[in-house]
Write a structure and sequence with these properties.
This protein is α/β, with parallel strands linked by helices. The protein folds into two domains: about 80 residues, Orthogonal Bundle (Methyltransferase, Methionine Synthase (B12-binding Domains), Chain A, domain 1), CATH 1.10.1240.10; about 120 residues, Rossmann fold (3-Layer(aba) Sandwich). It is about 60% helix and about 15% strand. The protein has a five-stranded parallel sheet with strand order 2-1-3-4-5, with helices on both faces. The two termini are about 30 Å apart. Bound molecules: CO-5-methoxybenzimidazolylcobamide. The site of CO-5-methoxybenzimidazolylcobamide has 28 residues, from α6, β3, β4 and α10.
Length: about 210
């Protein structure tokens, strides 16, 4: 097995030290940092996402895999040239106003990071105005809204309306998700995409920027 194949396996099994050591060895051997990310760390998280979707892996295992992926990123990311590091698309993620649930949102954010996206996580209970400010400040390609309560789903629509009123709606793709959210609801509020899980969120985000 090559070191690149080994790092994929170590990401999947969540071996933090193993991933860090292999990433360092690959760097020392002169492997291109973006190749380590794409063919090692992201490739590993892609498999994790697919297994999670098929119920072959569960939340704690995904979180451990994401931790291992981050350990590799910490070594490799500072070595990217400016052009390489700024080429990643940016996603702003947050749970909407009135909603404090963040486990799913964090998981989706990690999957997106694992897929090579730059993720700015605003946290929970984020108002429409805060989203608008963040879009103006960070100029993301995508914003991801999470809601776990039926009572906070309307805040997704308010956020989209506020983006329109502020004249920034066309600058971003809006993705929505969370247990009570559906494709039908996403269509109703004019979101650009709906994802039921982190793996689908990654696929949709890739489609948005390609
Ligand atoms: Co809350 N809670 N909770 N809760 N809680 C639910 C959601 C509930 C279904 C429980 C129930 O009654 N059976 C219910 C909602 C009912 C409804 O509206 N239909 C509920 C309630 C009522 C409440 C309170 C109102 C309870 C109270 O105080 N009376 C209160 C509200 C607080 C608030 O937000 N203002 C409350 C509080 C809490 C805790 C703080 C105790 C805790 C949250 C801790 C935290 O997140 N840091 C909590 C928890 C843990 C849950 C349950 C048990 C688990 C949620 C979770 O983390 N799931 C939940 C019941 C359940 O789901 N079994 C429940 C695991 C997570 C990985 O899945 O979040 O669905 P999920 O995320 C998935 C997908 O949905 C998707 O991808 C993720 C990965 O697959 N996804 C996205 C999520 N966001 C996405 C965004 C995307 C794309 C995909 O793109 C942007």
């Amino acid at each position: 097995m090559s070191k690149m194949e080994e790092i994929v396996e170590e990401v999947i099994t969540g071996n933090v030290d193993g991933v860090a050591e292999l990433a360092q060895e690959l760097v020392d051997e002169g492997t291109n940092p973006s190749e380590i990310i794409k063919n090692g760390l992201v490739a590993g998280m892609d498999i994790v996402g697919a297994r999670f979707k098929k119920n072959e892996m569960f939340v704690p295992e995904v979180l451990i895999a994401a931790k291992a992926m981050h350990a590799g990123m910490d070594i490799v990311k500072p070595l990217l040239t400016e052009g390489e590091s700024s080429s990643a698309a940016t996603v702003i993620m947050a749970t909407v106003e009135g909603d404090l649930h963040d486990i799913g949102k964090n998981l989706v954010a990690m999957m997106l990071e694992g897929a090579g996206f730059e993720v700015i996580d605003l946290g929970v209970d984020i108002s429409a105005d805060e989203f608008v400010e963040a879009v103006k400040e960070h100029q993301p390609d995508i914003i991801g809204l999470s809601a776990l309560l039926t009572t906070t789903m309307p805040a997704m629509e308010e956020t989209i309306k506020s983006l329109e009123e502020a004249g920034v709606r066309d600058q971003v793709k809006v993705m929505v998700g969370g247990a009570p959210v559906s494709q039908e609801f996403a269509d109703e509020i004019d979101a650009d995409g709906y994802a039921a899980d982190g793996s689908t969120a990654t696929e949709i985000a890739r489609e948005f920027v390609n």
